[in-house]
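User:
Hi there, any thoughts?
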Amino acid sequence: MLFTSVGRRVELISAFRRAAERKGFRLTIYGADIVNDAPALAFCDRTLIVPRIADPKYIPALLELCRNEGINALIPTIDTDLLLISEHREEFMSVGTAAIISDTDKIRICRDKRITSEYFESCGLKSPKAFSDYTAYTGGFPCFIKPKDGSSSINAYKANNRDELETYANHIPGYVIQPYISGKEYTVDIFCDFNGNPIYITPRERLQVRSGEVLKTRIVQDEKIKEECIRLIADFRPRGAITVQLIRDEITGEDYYIEINPRFGGGAPLSMRAGADSAEAMLCLLAGDRLTYFDNAANEETYTRFDQSVRVIDGKFALNALKAVIFDLDDTLYSERDYVKSGFRAVSRLFTDTEKAFKKMYEAFEAGKPAFDTMLNESGIFTEEIKQKCVSVYRAHKPDIRLRDGARELIERLRKNGVKIGIITDGNPARQQKKLEAMGLVALTDEIIVTDSIGGELFRKPNDISFRIMQRRLGVAFEKMMYVGDNPSKDFFAPKQLGMKTCMIDNPDGLYKDNPLTATDLHLTSLSELNEVFRNE
């Protein structure tokens, strides 16, 4: 079997290998990707580096492999692969390879979310009305805007008002807008035989999601959802696996269908674990068995997923393959507590007892209270005018801050080895510039982006626009870049979506150390530790 664009699909490949072992099939798994450090390649028996999907040489490369290696079945795994492979399905068949994918006309429906919405309605299913022009949008707010042919939640945003909608619309080419439906989200893993007859229909509630893929899910044998999906299957006639997403409105209880992905979804192996083993079913169908509809997935079982590291030998996945390292600024390259102290020192000079004023402000800050209000009230001198003067001094002061231990050595080591250095930081541009100048960072970096200077707070992380701009400026592929940050609630969402490596610096004195941990490629406690990691590489 050949899996194209294998990327991170380790679970899927492992599920097929387990199924083959149970059935006693001799299975050789081929994995194709455009880079040799895709994690799933480490779990394949044979690997092939192919041109990009848009390259005219892509299909010929796959056909040559299928012909020379006697590939029985081809399984595409990402959205951008689907239409092209479906259009060439007969060519693959001519060399003896069954491309397990739905018909081309159905793939086209799925690739344009505006058409998908209309298709759901034609099957008697509810779907949020889709708009292709924000000036004509009449669906109310909040609403959801995303690329009409997007995937993995990339460039998908919730807009709370018309101004936000206009801003997003001007940055997303070929978008679709739909009213925001609030309620429980479900994914349905559907697997059909090669004639479009259902074998498994497994609804799952999406309990926790990252980058469009589920991290935690619960199997829910919901008869209403199953009946609705049977109506969809009757017209769509899937060949192999598809996943369907819907939201059950928390007020009306109505199901609103959002999209169809005519492939194995990222969470499909979780349904397989529950008993709806579509990997085994696929192998049995390829072996000539006839299968009927099964309804044996364990109900109400909850499954979670986790990341595991794969180090490809000979440096193919090593850090020394990086061409650019991008840093967060606040609390990553310096201690944000030092900046706060510096600001409070400047403000305290407005008062006769400077040490007492400083102490009151910093104690309030550590207690999570408004520092200026608390200090002024406890001193019995609060007025709105004095408070605003404190705010102005704090914002305008020249910060007394310094780089964290190991930061300068790390940056100089990377630059010496030809690695480009960037900074992406949120905040007021003037204040951030003062911080950068105080630490001499302008001379140490190739590019600096203050997200607020792009278009205000709307473009702060986790918005991915600043990362895309940085990538274009540096001219480095995303997979050759790493982002180093400290705040798991916002720093790593965009770079992980874009395929960058990620490093969490969990500083002991950091302001965000108590946040839930976001899985990253590296999780360290200091920049000195990261410097040592690069030294060992």
The longest helix spans residues 10-23. Confidence is low (pLDDT under 50) at residues 313-317. Residues 66 and 97 are 7 Å apart (CA to CA).
